[in-house]
Design a protein that fits this description.
By secondary structure, the chain is an alpha+beta fold. The protein has helices at residues 35-45, 76-86, 126-136, 170-184, 198-203, 212-219, 262-272, 307-322, 354-364; strands at residues 11-14, 23-30, 49-57, 61-69, 90-93, 96-99, 113-119, 139-148, 154-162, 188-195, 238-242, 250-257, 275-284, 289-298, 326-332, 335-343, 369-376, 379-386. Strand 13 and strand 14 (289-298) form a beta hairpin. The radius of gyration is 22 Å and the shape is globular.
Length: 387
């Protein structure tokens, strides 16, 4: 493990031979804390589910194997490129690649662009159709402000970043506007894309108008009292830690109900706690029960022996697996307000495709949205007013 002859072989994708069979994704590259989280995030962003996985590392190089299932129209070449981008770099000499230690520097935050357009009228599913186009264009939605005027016209403000870092070019902007016009049709009045200045970005954050009780519940990182121990709902949520099975690692065993993005939630939590995963095996059975075995250590190479640290990590894992999304519904006069929140990584990135999934669900339910606001707190926060 660790010797590569072609940089492209750092990530290998072997597509399924039969419909319904999983596709294998193999990653063999220098290791770093949080690599599993970064890889799982990209896989989730492409709409794929991880059905099984294995990972191991010798402290410098890692070998990771994912079995994924998902959409038949997955852009595998683009997925390969995006996975390759998050793998630590190698240096090449005489055709042989070897590990090159990296000096960790805070990357420059991506430029935020304001996508602003007016529509003559609204329709059910319009917001999801726009969101789908932006996802296909690899434009990441940071914040959204949607409002409907009394005359029925709609103003949409999307604050986005560009995965390709090309939105400053006219060609890329024309491409985005072309695809948006294609989905909006004659409903579009105008569409503009511009670099968002600090004052505009600051105004987009807005403020929360939630009642204190809902704010406390939806932003809480603690398990509800009824689910701490012994309740029927928590019987399929087990997190245990054992230091007796390995001389140098803490064994973490997890059993829970399978759900979308589950492995990402585990890896994100470990990354936030600066925990290194030396070995991992996880799978979901036919009954929808997920099981994972992990051998982990702290960043200093030591076991996790402090009971307080163990309890903190165990509680946080249980919380993230119990409810990765916080959802609340309340009435506002004749309208209904839907609030959805999910934790963000320490680097500020929220869970992929949350806004996409929400708008898709409301489109399927034929619920019309006439106002949307997204905010950033300890969690990514979205609220929608619908009729």
């Amino acid at each position: 493990m660790g010797i590569l002859y072609d940089y492209e072989d750092v990530v290998l994708i072997r597509q399924a031979e039969k419909p319904g069979d999983p596709t294998e994704i193999t990653v063999n590259c220098p290791d770093k804390i949080g690599l599993g989280c970064d890889l799982c995030r990209i896989i989730l962003r492409f709409g794929l589910s991880i059905s099984r996985g294995d990972s191991s590392t010798d402290g410098k190089w890692c070998y990771i194997l994912f079995w994924v299932v998902g959409k038949p129209n997955t852009r595998w070449n683009l997925l390969h490129k995006r996975l390759l981008e998050v793998c630590p770099s190698c240096s090449s000499a005489s055709g042989i690649s070897y590990y090159k230690p990296e000096f960790h520097q805070q990357p420059k935050p991506p430029d935020v662009f304001l996508l602003k357009f007016w529509c003559y009228y609204d329709r059910k599913g319009l917001l999801h159709d726009i969101t789908e186009v932006l996802c296909e264009l690899e434009l990441t939605i940071k914040r959204v402000k949607v409002s409907t005027a009394p005359d029925g016209r709609v103003m949409d403000l999307f604050f986005v970043t560009d995965t390709r870092n090309e939105l400053h070019t006219q060609k890329r902007r024309d491409e985005a506007i072309y695809h948006l016009k294609d989905v909006l049709g004659d409903a579009m009045i105008s569409c503009e894309i511009e670099l968002a200045g600090p004052e505009v970005t600051g105004c987009s954050q807005g403020s929360s108008f939630l009642p204190p009780a809902i704010t406390e519940e939806i932003f809480s990182l603690e398990l509800p009292n009824g689910h701490q121990n012994g309740s029927p709902a928590s019987n399929t949520l087990i997190v245990t830690m054992d230091n007796s099975l390995s001389p140098s690692h803490t064994h973490v065993h997890i059993i829970c109900q399978d759900q979308k993005g589950l492995i990402y939630d585990i890896m994100r939590t470990l990354k936030d706690y600066n925990i290194q995963t030396s070995y991992g095996r996880f799978f979901a059975n036919a009954k929808g029960i997920f099981e994972a075995d992990l051998l982990v250590m702290q960043a200093d190479g030591k076991k996790l022996v402090d009971p307080n640290k163990q309890n903190a990590l165990s509680s946080r894992l249980k919380m993230e697996l119990f409810r990765p999304l916080r959802v609340a519904v309340q009435s506002r006069g004749p309208d209904t307000e839907l609030l959805v929140a999910n934790p963000v990584e320490l680097c500020g990135r929220g869970r992929p495709l949350v806004f996409y999934d929400i708008t898709l669900a409301l489109k399927i339910l034929k619920i019309q949205i006439f106002s949307v606001t997204t905010l950033t707190h300890e969690v990514s926060y979205i609220y929608m007013l619908s009729k």
